[in-house]
Amino acid sequence: MLFGASNDYTEDKIMQITLAFNHFGKRLVQRMPRIRYGFVHCVNNDYTHWEMYAIGGSQNPTIISEGNRFIGPNNKMLGNDLINSKEITKREYTEESEWKIWQWRSVNDLFLNGAFFVQSGPELKDRPFSREDMITAKPGSYVGRLTRYSGNLRCRVGQPC
After folding, report:
1. pLDDT tens readout for residues 74-105
2. What is the pTM (predicted TM-score) of this model?
């Protein structure tokens, strides 16, 4: 998932997205999601088996990861190189001196198998939006139950989906 039209389309600064109750699993490499500009609330999603990163961004998006479960992928060998993709976050095309002020926060997420989230920006004291605008998250330990039936729809022509 890539949210934001382009690096030059600054009108996306007003974009607000909630990404909830999904399972991101095998054969996914990145962009679960990747955000340009705007605000994204990732809430109660299940992340497993990513190959590069799970959540990424550019152009100073605000990202609140809340109540997600992250199960880090196992390390792999590619030739003589160890591939370690335990980091959940990736800031694209930006130096640390710039992205360290971006508001990327993890709240009540569950980290397993070495997964880790690199937070940035000031500590989250107030929500960017009111409670009416955001889903109330359960702790990351609930994610297995909340995403049990998530996945592809098995729709058939002529049948309700």
Report:
1. 887 777 766 678 999 999 889 999 999 999 99
2. 0.87
Q: How many residues does the chain have?
A: 161
Distance CA 139, CA 145 (A): 11
Neighbouring C-alpha atoms within 13 Å toward the C-beta of 150: 17
- Mark whether 31 is an active-site residue: yes
103-139 as b/e: b if 16+ CB within 10 A = bbbbbbbbbeeebebebeeeebeeeeeeeeebeebee
Tens digit of pLDDT for each residue in 9-45? 999 999 999 999 999 988 888 889 999 999 999 999 9
CA 114 vs. chain centroid, Å, equals: 16
For the chain, the structural domain boundaries read 2-6+14-124
* Catalytic residue from among 27, 31, 91, 145: 31
